[in-house]
Amino acid sequence: VAAAPESPVAEHAPSAEGDKNLRERRKKSSRGRRGKRGGRKQVPGEEVKAAEEGASTEPEAFSDHPERGWAEEDEGFGDYFQEDELPEEIEEEEPFEYEEPQEEVKRVCKLLINAEEPEECRLALLEDGRLESIHVSTISRTQTKNNIYKAKIVAIEPSLQAAFVDYGTEKNGFLPFSEIHPEYYKQELSNEVRHLVETHQWKRLSITDVMERGQEVLAQVVKEEVGKKGANMTTYLSIPGRSVVLMPGSDSSGISRKISGEERRSQLRGAMKSIDLPEGIGWIVRTASVDINEEVLSRDVKYLLGLWDDIKRKGQEMGGVGLVYEDQESVLRFLREHFDPSIQEILVDDRTALEQVKKFVELLPEKQRNVKVRLHQGARPIFNQYSIEDQIESIYQPQVNLPSGGSIVISPTEALVAIDVNSGSTSRGKNFEASIFQANMEAAAELARQLRLRDLGGLIVVDFIDMRNRKHIQAVEKKVKESMKKDKAKVDFSRISKFGLLQISRQKLGAPIEAGNYRQCEHCKGRGTVRSVETLSLYYLRRIQTGASRKVVGRIECHFPIDVASYLQNNKRAELHEMERKYGVEVMILAEPDMKPMDNELIFHKAEKEENPKKQS
Predict the structure, then answer these.
(1) Is 232 within 8 Å of 177 (Cβ atoms)?
(2) Same domain for 509 and 431?
């Protein structure tokens, strides 16, 4: 039987061996790629500690309310590279290995407290002479977070499911329905509403069903007022101590996620259960309790219970709205929230603050009392002595230089914070990819520090320099994640997209540090730029012409800054004369040396009544 002629398709069909080689090549080329959108492939050797990374010391008091919580590990952004859209230019080979700078095993940590000026108190945490944290408290930036007020509901907005409360300040506080404790619901409820409340069907309730104007509540500030926005408030109160947080009106309890080891967690849980707490008082054991004994924990709880009794009594006795409980002074508040056993020395330049620090240290567990507390008596100011004034001033600058010659530029806006990574002189080396990788790695470490120093929160978008090597991309992502571990705020991340963008969501613990130390520019009104003299002059010329065209106007007085007035008189004299001839009006250009660039005043006098001028500005 004659063999059938081979078909063209069969001629090019892969053999078994060729098919095996093809599968191996595909397997090799796709190894390590990201999978479907929304999934995550762990980098070899990377430790994923989602529960540990998002933990915060200060917000622990609110961990029993899921609506306030932040995701502890982001899977929602998904991966930006699909299996079929991975850029072909990404290299599988890694021509350069970035070497991490060797860090000393033991760092020298110091806390400097500058409190000699009554108008301002500054606290700086140093690691090996490098500024790692800064807190500034001024008269113009009085912190109200954690303060408890007696407040009155002055408006209810059903569309927002929220109420606005007067608590004794210029701006009303914002109180969402989800932050109103059921004990404040009005007494006269319909049977249907009462059933929804008893069965905890909160989503079917409207704030108007259970609240009314004029009601008084005890409310706590959870977020400082920023700009035109008032403070965010809650009636789920929390009273923070050094080792524990009490939550009146709550039955929940918990241990800080940063306390590892099930045995220690069980000991602390047992110690709290052995304390005779009143019914309806929740608690959270803080990270600072990791080394303390049951006696210290019990003493802290008893102090907070006494404080809560004082708050209730004062709230009942107070006639109107106002402050019921004020959080501790800036020095003690900073120590309570940020003191770490790694701090070896505390230097203070004010004797009153020194006594406060000493009393705080005396209440620490015995293992942590070896910290040295000294009064700074040098001839030079304390911050100058340790060369950190320049580091503090750099916080207010948009550009931060990197060790290798690159830089990052930080631009806060109303919607988000944009961070741009620039290679600078880093890209002048022979290995371009290696230089870009080094700049991105340095930027990943520095941006985490800058976010802490500047108190920037909300949505942050980082524009890294484009990288072609997949392993470099993964290394930068890992570096960002590791650098954020020091942060007290809760932080969430996306992956680096194909456009080189990394999204970070950081909890806002307070207003940015710049807000309390800078004021809006009177010239540009916060824009950062002012209109040019030529543009302003033409704009005012059109306004003059519009006014002159009205038949009732006989004379126009124009008061402008010197540069605008000079431009109009020298460059637009012919147009002004033509305007006077055409409309039969008199135009007077007057230069005012005290006027700012954008200021102006136009006065239109009626033709028949000079004594009744009409002003416009």
Answers:
(1) no
(2) yes
